[in-house]
């Protein structure tokens, strides 16, 4: 113990080399070793343990964060340890500036790279896992745009910390951006409309939609336009800007279709028979699968008929299936009326001549 005390207090520790004592160099070296060991412990022991714990959770957010941290190169930790170690030393100003620049650039680079990975994960998670190529292409495009924005912000941050006035640079970027935006106004408008469609999801691939005067099944959602397959079979190409500004009806999300129709019987129909008509209609509609009867009422005295109004709900989003149901209802009502000898009305007009 006495030997160790004499060794630590030996005069040679106070000998200076390049403005620092040998003791200061020893302290810096010891800090470098300790910091490197702590970072190694974090990267190989703690992260490995956290990765095992993350596998037992249902969420994949923790797995993604751990993978992002694990992707940081060991050289970054060594650089940080070296930077912390030399803080105890007196070093030339030029060396200090070089070290500060290297550390700053590397830290910003790691931050931008990690931010880009988080952005890509968020986009994939928000948009959802899709197999169609257009969705994957849009995700890649948004991810790349976000990456460039992050790199530009990081670059300006580095310049500002180096004492460079970035105001003129930002002004130049602003003027250039305005010029590019004016030149590509139509393209950029459709591009951002495409982002709005993917993020808001008013419709998806395979949905049957009506947008203004156009209707059809969504075949592809592109960067500039969306393609619909019309009922007649032709392809309709609509710009994404037009779709985001138009009123869009999405029939794929339809769960129950409300159907209203009317019919009339002749004026010679007895009141007792008219009382039975709503019951007959309810019986016909109630016997059809996936159809819910709502009401049937005598509505008005028409010009040439006694008019009834019927409302029911077809519990399907498929248009062809709905038409099959509606046809069964109409034919069922006709057969029931024929059986009860109820005469359907048709437009007539009696003219008296003098």
TrEMBL record:
Residues 261-344 form the Mechanosensitive ion channel MscS C-terminal domain. Residues 187-252 form the Mechanosensitive ion channel MscS domain. The chain crosses the membrane at residues 28-47, 76-95, 101-124, 145-163, 169-188. Keywords: Cell membrane, Membrane, Transmembrane, Transmembrane helix. This is Mechanosensitive ion channel protein MscS. GO terms for biological process: transmembrane transport. GO terms for cellular component: plasma membrane. Pfam families: MS_channel_1st, MS_channel_2nd, MS_channel_3rd. InterPro entries: LSM_dom_sf (IPR010920), MS_channel_1st (IPR049142), MS_channel_C (IPR049278), MscS_beta-dom_sf (IPR023408), MscS_channel_2nd (IPR006685), MscS_channel_C_sf (IPR011066), MscS_channel_TM-2 (IPR011014). Belongs to the MscS (TC 1.A.23) family. Its main location: membrane. It is a multi-pass membrane protein. It is found in: Cell membrane. Residues 149-185 form the Mechanosensitive ion channel transmembrane helices 2/3 domain.
